[in-house]
Every structure is written in C-alpha cells, then in structure tokens.
Amino acid sequence: MHFHKYEKIWLVFGLVSLILFLSIVGVSAFSHGHTPSGGMDTIDPKKVNETAPFDKPGVTQLDDDTYQVAIVALAFGYNAPELKVPAGKEIIFKVTSTDVVHSFTIDNTKVNMMVVPGQITTKSYTFDKPGKYLILCNEYCGAGHHLMSTEIEVY
Amino acid sequence: MIAAQDRKLALWNIGVAYIAFLIGTLCGLLQVFIRNDALQLPSWLDYYQILTAHGVLLALIFTTYFIFGFFITGMSKSLGSFGPKVRLYSWLGFWVTTLGTIMATVMIVSGEASVLYTFYAPLKASGWYYVGLALFVVGTWISSFALVGHYLVWRKKHKGQLSPLFAFMTITTIILWIIACLGVVATVLFQYIPWAFGWVDTINVELSRSLFWYFGHPLVYFWLLPAYMAWYVIVPKLISTKVFSDSLARLSFVLFILFSIPVGFHHQLTEPGISNFWKFLQVVLTFMVIIPSLMTAFSMFATFEISGRKKGAKGLFGWFTKLPWKDVRFTSIFVAMAFFIPGGAGGIINASFQLNEIVHNTLWIVGHFHITVGTPVAMTFMGLTFWLIPYLTGRKFSKAMQKLGFVQIITWTIGMLLMSTSQHILGLLGAPRRTAYSNYNNHPSALEWFDGILTNHVTMAIGGSILFLSAMILIYIVVMSLFLSPKAVRAEDFVEFPMAESDVQNTPKFLENWWIWIGIAFVLIIIAYAIPLTGMIHHAPPGSEGFKTW
C-alpha cells in the first residue's frame, strides 16, 4: 500500500496529537482523580426509601471537611429537603432514582450525574463560590421533565 | 441507465425517505416555536411526542431509506442489474422495514410511545412500538442480505478480482450495520418485548442502556459512511479526476468497521454501573476512529488540489478557485464537508472522558448532531438527491432547478449556522436538551442562558424557520424530479450517475478478505464489552418495573 509523503506527515501528526490528548485525559483522570461521576453500588429501586442513606435524604456532615448529600430523584422532582452546603469543603453527592432514568445536574458546576434506577451515582465536588445554584434534570423522564428542578444553597 | 425494475426499487426507497423528511422537519419547526413559548399545542398533542417523531423520522427513517435507495442504484450501476432473487428480497426487505416504520409511527402519534428514539427503560412504551422497531431492523437486514447476495454473485463471476470501490464500500457499511444491530436486537427481543407485554415483571436497566449504545454509536457511522462514499467515489468525478488512492479509501473504510463499534460507553460516561477503567478503554478506542477520518480529509483535499492543478491552477491555494463552484452537486457536498470539521472536533470533545461532564445532555449535544448528521450527512444526501432522482426517473434537471438547489443549500447552511451555534453556546452555559419550554420558575441562571445575541430564543427560531423553508424547497425539487419535470429526450439532457474511476493496480487483495476484518472487529468487541456486560448481568440490582410518565 502506498502512502504519499505528505500523507505520512499528516497521519504522524494526527497520531502524535491523539496520543498527547489521551495522555492528558488519562493522567488527569487517574492520577488527579478527575473522573466523571459514576460508581458501582447498587440498590433495590423499590426499597430506596428504606435504604441508607436515602432513608434520610439531605445533607449530612461526615467530618470537618466532608459533607454527604443524599438525593432521591423521581418523576418530576428531587426528594432532598433544604440543600445547604458550605463552599470550600468536599461535598459527596449520592443520587438514585425510584422510577425512571433522570439526571442530577447543578448549573455552573461540573456536577452532571446520570441517575439510573437500581444504581447509586456518586460524585465528589467542591464549590468555590457561595450562591444559589439551579439543579435540573437533563435526561428526558416524561411529560413534566422540563419542570423537574430544585436549588442548592452554597454558603 | 440501470434496469427499470432496479430504478423502481430505488425510487420507492427514496420516496419513503422524503415523506419522513417532510414530516420530520415539520416537527422540528414546531419544536423551536414551542421552546420559545410562541406556540401552544392542542391538548391531544405533546412536545415529547413531536420530539420523538422528529428524532425517529429524520435520524432513523429518512437516513436508512435514502441510504438503501443510494446503495441499490450504485450496486446495480457498478455490478450490473439485480437478479430475480435479489430483487425479490430487496422488495421483501422494503416492505418489512415499512411495516415496522408504520407500526412505530402509529404508536408515537397515538401517544403510546413518547419515549424518544433512545427509548431508555424503564420508560415503557406499548409493546407494539418495540415490535415495530424490531421489524424495522429485520427489514433492513433482509435488504442488506439481498445486496450482499448480489455482490457474491459478482465475486463468483469475477474470481480473483477486487470489486468496484462503490460495491466494496456498500458491503463495508452493511457489515458495520449488521454487527451494530446485534446489540439493539438483543435488547429489544430479549429485554423490552417480554417486559412490555408483561411476560416478565422487570428489566435490567443498565444492561439495556449499554446494549442500546453498543448499537447507538455505530449507527452514526451507518449514516456517515454512505456520505463518505459520495465524497470518495462521486466527488472526484464531479471535479473530473480519479479517486486519489483506491487502497487508502478501502483501508479507511475497514478501519471504520473495527473502531466504530467497541466504543458505546462514551455515551455513558457520567452514569453508574460501568467502572472508570472500561469507560476509559472505550474512550481510547473511540479516538482511534480519528485515524480513518484524517485519511479521508487528506484524500479529499488531495483530490481537490490534483483537479485544480490539472486545470492550470498556480500557487499554493490556486486550485481552490478552479473547483466547479457553479455545480450544485459539488458545492453542496463541499459545504457538507466543511461542516464536518467543527462537527468532528466537537465529537472529540464529547468523547474526552471527564470533559463530557460539561456537555453531557446539554443543548451542546443537540448542536453537535445537527452539524454532523444534520448537515454533513444530510446535505451530502441532498447533493446526491439533485441528480439521483432525475437519473432514476429519466427526467431533466434544468438550470432553474439547479438555481433552486443553490437556494436550498444556502438556506440550509445559514439556518444551521444560526441554530447550531446557538445550541452549542446554550449547552456550554448549561441549558439542557430534550426539554419543552421551561424557565425553571424564572431562576436567574436559566434566564441568563437566553440573554445573549446568539443564544436568545429569537435566533434559534429564525434558524429553525430558515431550515424549514429550505426543507420545503428540497421537497419541491424532489416532487418535480419524481413526477413533473420534463422527460429527457436528447442524449445530453439525461442526468448521469457520476462514478469516478478508481485504480486498483496497487490495492492489496487482503483488504477485501472480509473474514479478517469481521474477526478483528469481534475480538475488539469482546475485549471492550465481555467483562463489563457480564458484570452488569451478574451483579444486577433488582430490576425495574415499567413506568408511563407521559
């Protein structure tokens, strides 16, 4: 198979950039912990309300610098009373669903979690700035999908 | 001209494609006006019904039927007329696909299937919707096997020869399609149908999502490869030159079989149930598809330059002015290619693992597929339509029609630039996709999204309206070319099928040894999917019952 000289240059350039991109993404993900939301924990979608931590949804302080926020998503809202968390502390979000697939997405942040019934999605995030952040569902979940939202206050 | 019966077959496929295009684009127009609160739907019709119809009709029905119309014409042209068996099975495939399409459409219209074209469980549509989808896929398989049969007959008669490039690329696309559909067939037959008809109570949601996306990503290559065929095989003829390199064209196509399938997890990067290791492995495999894309880009520009220089172009970029800009068949495809540059770059961003969190399920994604499938693919199909239908009907494609064709592609370009730019920016700001009109109780950040010059509701509505106007011009051209334009009588009035010569002298034979490529494809699929899918089955949480939340 014949490769034109310029095509060789072009493909080598492409391959090198590819390796560079993937290395940056990989190193940032696995040695700096910048992985997307996820998690392998499972839960019975019919027993969410009896299973910790979703039996008491909301904010719990785990230690001086860490807070956990447990959220139950359902059509068309979030079961999470009074969400208030401090800025500059690590917040661990744990979200699950009692019915269909939703998302838990906080506007102006990197928190963008798919919520799948039977699974628990986890994401760790630290807010820089105080304020009231809009939380919304960005995965179609039914007739009221565009009304599914709430708010989190960062102080 | 190809055999009359083959022409009829191709025309019926193209006809259904454009019926879907007409209804699908009308749904798109309604959507932009609902989204900016300028239109209230009657109570029996709902935004998500229209959204489902828009996605299914344009992304699945229009594309698939057009692709088969194009394949049938090109296979008959390059390998000779179909035999009676090939014809019979092609018709059977057409009718089974159409039956599936009608069933699914009826379910969407009657409000029994507002589950969007991704139909994520545990949203539960009527069982007949899933049966319709299954029939659709089975129908395309029958049509595919008919074309494979036609190809095998040719191979038997021409032992030891490489097939014509068009046929080779058709078969590559069909192999990709059949392997890809295995995932959606598995989930629809073994998960959705038993569950939707109540034979089982629950469904394994994460498994169904993963099987869907095993299919969902190569689906986009099923749309793209026929467009690439036009770029590789049709474009050189339009600019009076040959295929740049036959062997590289074939190599890039088989690389798509390898690297477009074991990559579905990059649509599931922000969800639970798949470990970071497997997500990242599929991100790496996703990026491999950039190699054949770069090869294609190189071939295209090499072809342009060779053609320009042959026509006496001087200097580094002089060839650019020598391209046949007044030929709508060429200009349309050139614009389509140009859109694919930002489209492809956006794709790299989306697949970049943690970067996906910024854009996942925002309007950015909607912008992304409107400048990939919605323009590079769709506008290439438009560029083909201009000559393909007159070629098949034996009617003229007049100067006036050519002018109208220019108006059509220019309006599509402007409309898409406005709409997709607006969608990309809105997505970066955080506006979600797949939503009816919503201001989130006038939340300040939601109001901020729509405040910009490019991101306000008016821009998107203007873009959408221009696109619809363009679509209607195209429908006019299609109807004229099908039924009303004057018949060609003189030899020079007949429209040709521009198929470029491709020099196979230096093409190695192993490129057409399909078992090598199918074998490697399955090895890669097993590496990427065997362990995570097994885990999803063995460590499955209690399944989900169905919900009808619309």
Automatic annotation (TrEMBL), chain A:
The record's GO CC annotations read:
cell envelope; membrane
Q: Does the keyword Lipid metabolism apply?
A: no
Q: Which Pfam family, just one, is annotated for this protein?
A: COX2
Q: Which reaction does it catalyse?
A: 4 Fe(II)-[cytochrome c] + O2 + 8 H(+)(in) = 4 Fe(III)-[cytochrome c] + 2 H2O + 4 H(+)(out)
The record ties this protein, via InterPro entries, to: Ba3_CcO_II_C, CcO_II-like_C, Copper_CuA, Cupredoxin, NosZ/Cyto_c_oxidase_sub2
What are the UniProt keywords, alphabetically? Copper, Metal-binding
Tell me the SUPFAM superfamilies matching this sequence. Cupredoxins
- Alphabetical list of Gene3D superfamilies matching this protein: Cupredoxins - blue copper proteins
Q: Where in the cell is it found?
A: Cell envelope
User: What name does the UniProt record give this protein?
Assistant: Cytochrome aa3 subunit 2
From which source organism is this entry?
A: Paenisporosarcina quisquiliarum
TrEMBL record, chain B:
Which parts of the sequence belong to the Cytochrome oxidase subunit I profile domain? 1-482
Task: List the InterPro entries.
Answer: Ba3-like_Oxidase_I, Cyt_c_oxase-like_su1_dom, Cyt_c_oxase-like_su1_sf, Cyt_C_Oxase_1, Cyt_c_Oxase_su1_BS
The way it spans or sits in the membrane comes to: Multi-pass membrane protein
GO molecular-function term, one example from the UniProt record: cytochrome-c oxidase activity
Q: Which UniProt keywords apply?
A: Electron transport, Heme, Iron, Membrane, Metal-binding, Respiratory chain, Transmembrane, Transmembrane helix, Transport
Major localization class: membrane
State the family named in the UniProt similarity comment for this chain.
Answer: Belongs to the heme-copper respiratory oxidase family.
Protein name (Swiss-Prot/TrEMBL): B(O/a)3-type cytochrome-c oxidase subunit 1
